Structure formats: structure tokens, C-alpha cells
Amino acid sequence: MKLLIDTKRKKVLFAEASKQVVDFLFTLLQLPLATVVKLLTKEDAVGCLGNLYSSVENLNHIYMQPNLSKHLLLNPTILGSTPSISGLLPSASGMITPKLYGCNNSNCNTISDVCYSRCPTCTTYYMSKEMTTYFKGRAATAASQSNNNNNGFVKK
What we know:
Pfam families: DUF674. About 25% of the residues lie in helices and about 15% in strands. The protein is an alpha+beta fold and about 160 residues long. The strands form 2 sheets. A 4-stranded antiparallel β-sheet has the order 4-3-6-5. The longest helix has 10 residues, at about 20-30.
């Protein structure tokens, strides 16, 4: 991580970090802490969580993965397990049946497990139509997902 600091005002002027570091920080917002930070004022938030939340709020959507939206980070859904998007924590697969969401475009059949993410097929519609799902088992693992260059929240 590279930092440019104004030592007189004790402020960070510029920060540069790898994709993995940024994805890890954004993953922290998926914890119930993000909901707490949203309810507090920026001054009341503990440590840097308020700043992290504000940074995501102000982040331009062009830096996000095409199939994800900031809404996912700013309004996390609390489930029985936290998704292993960062690849740092093992997936708790099998604990719950995920909800799937379809594209709002009636001519598109794309589905996602992330509500309000941008449809990767249509690119102008969002995945918010809740689908009825039936699962016998899961084949995907966190290990197979971690080899994908498009995982995480931000683009490389």
C-alpha cells in the first residue's frame, strides 16, 4: 500500500492499494458492522469504518465489477454466513439456500445470487426479480471461485 500523507494536517492525501486489499476492505462492509455504521454519524463510527463506508458511497461505479453494485456493500443482507468473495475466508456452503435474482429485462434469462447487481448480459438492467429456487446440492467451491479474475468488488 502506498500513502501520500500531509504530516502538518495529519491527513492522507492519496492512497494506492492492490485489488486484493481493496476487496478485503470492502468485504468488511458485508459484516453486520456496515449496518451499524450506516445508522451512526461519521463522527460516531469506531476507527476507520465510517471513512470506509463514505469511500464506498462516493466511489464511482466504473471502478466496480460489472455485475456488482455499491448497494450490495452499503445495504448488506445478514445471512447465516458471509460470502467468501475475497477468497480469504472459506465458504460456509450448505448452511443456507441462497436466493437467486433474475434480470428485470423480460427478454433475458440471466440469474445471479447478488440482488441489485448489474446484469452482465444486458448491462443496463439490474438483477432484482426474486426467483424460486430448488437445490439438491452445490458444486461450486470458494477455491474454484478464487481463481477467477472477475471475483471481488473492484476491477483490477
